[in-house]
């Protein structure tokens, strides 16, 4: 009798285990999400994401660009990095391996004009670098870990230099205006003014309204 009870218990446990595995297999999977720090770093680029109507920029499941997106963004990204338009992917990877992490902070700032407002230029550079770093990751031109290091460093300098999303947004408006006034190209951007900024700052749907400034420091040891 005891043997029969033992067999019954075994089959009950086996059945429970099988049901648990089936449940885990069939239950809806939670959508992947970026950490708060990564989401914050990417959201700096919101004006350019909106301007380009890019999809997948904020999707953790996106790890590469489609062929159509590559064709659309390739030349503009090469222009932003001041590299020739007919370069091969291998040539771009080799170039970025030498300069991306060591010179990212100079982008759009290394040749300021005497009339440029440095703070406005910095906000403009932060937006452009956030957009650029995510896209060269998706293009397969840099390793994801290298891209995230630059994205988080870029986020940290924005947090250190501006007081709020509104402060950052007004500086970005001025920075883009002075960039274009000197006949410098911004092919992946579009007009961004006070009305555009109000949309980003308007709760509950504004992308910048949804995130605190500065929120978590980019390099805090807290694993959040």
Name the descriptors.
mainly alpha, 0% strand, 59% helix
Overview of this protein structure:
By secondary structure, the chain is mainly alpha-helical. Helices cover 59% and strands 0% of the residues. The chain has two domains: 30 residues; 170 residues, no CATH class. The longest helix has 25 residues. Keywords: Membrane, Transmembrane, Transmembrane helix. Pfam families: DUF1266 (PF06889). This is Putative inner membrane protein. InterPro entries: DUF1266.
Shape: globular
Share in β-strands: under 5%
How many distinct folded domains? 2
In DSSP terms (H or I, runs of 4 or more residues), the helix count works out at 9
């Amino acid at each position: 009798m005891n043997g029969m009870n033992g067999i019954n218990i075994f089959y009950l446990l086996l059945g429970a285990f099988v049901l648990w595995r089936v449940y885990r297999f069939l239950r809806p999977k939670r959508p992947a999400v970026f950490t708060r720090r990564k989401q914050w770093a990417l959201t700096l680029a919101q004006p350019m994401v909106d301007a380009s109507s890019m999809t997948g920029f904020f999707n953790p499941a996106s790890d590469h660009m489609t062929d159509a997106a590559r064709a659309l963004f390739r030349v503009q990204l090469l222009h932003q990095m001041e590299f020739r338009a007919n370069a091969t992917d291998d040539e771009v990877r080799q170039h970025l391996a030498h300069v991306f992490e060591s010179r990212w902070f100079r982008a759009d700032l290394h040749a300021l004009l005497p009339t440029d407002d440095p703070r406005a230029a910095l906000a403009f550079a932060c937006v452009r670098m956030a957009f650029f770093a995510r896209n060269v990751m998706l293009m397969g031109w840099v390793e994801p870990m290298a891209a995230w290091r630059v994205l988080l460093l870029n986020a940290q300098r924005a947090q250190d230099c501006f007081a709020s999303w509104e402060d950052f947004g007004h500086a970005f408006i001025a920075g883009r205006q002075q960039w274009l006034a000197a006949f410098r190209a911004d092919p992946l951007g579009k007009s961004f003014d006070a009305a555009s900024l109000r949309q980003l700052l308007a709760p509950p749907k504004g992308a910048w309204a949804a995130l605190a400034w500065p929120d978590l420091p980019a390099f805090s040891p807290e694993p959040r």
